[in-house]
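Notebook entry, cofactor series.
This is the third protein in the set we're modelling with a bound small molecule. For this one the ligand is NAP. I'm keeping the input format identical across the series so the outputs can be compared line by line later. Sequence and SMILES below, as received.
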Amino acid sequence: MTTVGSDSGKIVLITGASRGIGFEAARLFAAEGHSVILSARDRQRGLSAVDALKAEDLPGSVHFLHLDVTDAASIAGAVEEVTEKFGKLDVLVNNAAILRDHYVKASEVAPDTLDQTLATNVTAVHAMIGAFLPLLRASGQARVINLASGAGQLTWMFDKVWAPAYQISKAGVNAVTRIWATELQPDGIPVNSVCPGWCRTEMGGEEADRSPEEGTSGILWLANEAPATVTGKFFRDQEELDW
Ligand SMILES: NC(=O)c1ccc[n+]([C@@H]2O[C@H](COP(=O)([O-])OP(=O)(O)OC[C@H]3O[C@@H](n4cnc5c(N)ncnc54)[C@H](OP(=O)(O)O)[C@@H]3O)[C@@H](O)[C@H]2O)c1
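Returned structure with ligand:
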């Protein structure tokens, strides 16, 4: 694991953090003095992202972790590395996602596209929580935050369908949140979904009305300030959303 800065605060692992909202969240957690594990499936992009944060001389530390969330061996290797380096995990941010069916109708979505989207956006979130569970339990103050989307709200998608596979997957993330929140309630580990709002990233595009930094506000709140008793819920910033 490549490390920059000093280890203190919480141990925070973010998936898909070489760009977009994940990268911005890594920057802000490190700015608060936490130890951030910036993970990315592309080693070069991940290392460049760590270098960019190093240049900011933030109070926390940033560690690069090579992780493809759709690859079971990659997840197992990541668990091994985090176990060796930290022995626990305080905050897991399941941020990585793909959007492959912008502006198509449900009738135009190939089953393969849906499979790939579900593999990254839903199955991988489930796999990550399961694989990191021993490290989360070792924390004593762990929190799990899953990036969902207003586009996955069942109440909303009847009127607004613009990416069927992605929207199905984001409804699925919310189900993953509910199911794991139920199982982990006795452990005192909150599991919540958060929508960052429409943000100017590669996924959100340039027309979006929020900066990536604004998109992280719900993530930071759930990691730092939300009562630990709040679990199995769906937020944008600090406002609870309908499913
Ligand atoms: N932007 C928005 O308006 C918006 C709105 C609602 C919800 N969200 C959600 O917020 C999260 C972040 O979105 P974003 O806008 O920052 O997206 P983004 O700019 O497209 O970034 C997505 C990140 O996920 C990574 N990724 C994709 N597949 C992966 C895999 N198999 N393993 C590891 N990493 C993988 C990408 O890595 P590569 O660089 O290797 O591709 C990239 O770093 C997503 O869950 C998204 O659904 C975004």
